[in-house]
TrEMBL record:
GO terms for biological process: mRNA splicing, via spliceosome. Pfam families: RRM_1, zf-CCCH. A zinc finger (C3H1-type) spans 12-40, 178-205. Residues 12-40, 178-205 form the C3H1-type domain. It comes from Mytilus galloprovincialis (Mediterranean mussel). This is Splicing factor U2AF 35 kDa subunit.
């Protein structure tokens, strides 16, 4: 029984623990969810809840009201006028919309870089993602995955005492460590029919230039640390090998000299015998 419960933990078959919170670190039901949200006591990932405010989502929508027209001809005249104006200004509207998209991307890149640089102060970052969803439980969530759990814990403790963009930061440890499981695959293929209210993550991408700059800098830091001078222990092993080599060479020289003395001593004794015989 215990093995079965362990095998279904965090899945849709689990009737006790919320599978959405386990995979995504957020649930649309919040505290009203009928299943448990097991908040981790240690994790590599920190989530800053609703931290990013997308200016595109602040656009006003129409109220849906309409005017009853008794005069059909007046409505037709208005429709013709509207179509003519719309056709004439369509290209200009498209150009203006394109410029707005560029400005929104720049705004997002600046936000992403500012948060990334601040989070680097707590430790090495493996991955950082921002949700582009519209649901209250996911909108603007920023997920930072550190290399070490200790750095994530340090970040959470400090961030909850800080403010950003005039608002207090609400940060907590997240169970999400594999974003491939948390992301909406249909959204990545451009086929998600749920739109911004999908319950899986719709991650907002940063520009290629910023990605190369931030993550390239992190790779260079890791390489510089890997090329650091060897530790004292490794140097002592090297010195030990050199000393052993010197001792071995000195022993060889001593044994060589002793062998030559032995040969020299035998020859000298034989000459002294001949000298004695010569005197007699």
């Amino acid at each position: 029984m215990a093995e079965y419960l362990a095998s279904i933990f965090g899945t849709e078959k689990d009737k006790v623990n919320c599978s959405f919170y386990f995979k995504i670190g957020a649930c649309r039901h919040g505290e009203r969810c009928s299943r448990l949200h097991n908040k981790p006591t240690f994790s590599q990932t920190v989530v800053m809840i609703n931290a990013y405010l997308n200016p595109q989502n602040a656009a006003l929508t129409a109220d849906g009201s309409h005017i009853v027209q008794d005069d059909v001809e007046a409505q037709q005249d208005f429709d013709n006028f509207f179509e003519e104006v719309f056709t004439e200004l369509e290209d200009k509207i498209h150009q203006q919309f394109h410029m707005d998209e560029i400005e929104i991307q720049q705004h997002y890149d600046e936000f992403f870089e500012e948060i990334y640089v601040e989070m680097e102060k707590y430790g090495e970052i493996e991955e950082m993602n921002v949700c582009d969803n519209l649901g209250d439980h996911l909108v603007g969530n920023v997920y930072i995955k550190f290399r070490y759990e200790e750095d994530a814990e340090k970040a959470v403790n400090d961030l909850n005492n800080r403010w950003f963009n005039g608002r207090p930061i609400h940060a907590e440890l997240s169970p999400v460590t594999d974003f491939r499981e948390a992301c909406c695959r249909q959204y990545e293929m451009g086929e998600c029919t749920r739109g911004g209210f999908c319950n899986f993550m719709h991650l907002k991408p940063i520009s290629r230039e910023l990605r190369r700059e931030l993550y390239g800098r992190s790779r260079r830091k890791r390489k510089s640390r890997s090329r650091s001078p060897p530790t004292r222990r490794s140097r002592s092993r090297s010195a030990g090998r050199e000393n052993r080599g010197k001792r071995s060479r000195s022993r060889e020289r001593r044994s060589s000299r002793s062998r030559s003395r032995e040969r020299g001593g035998g020859g000298g004794g034989h000459r002294r015998d001949r000298d004695r015989h010569g005197r007699y």
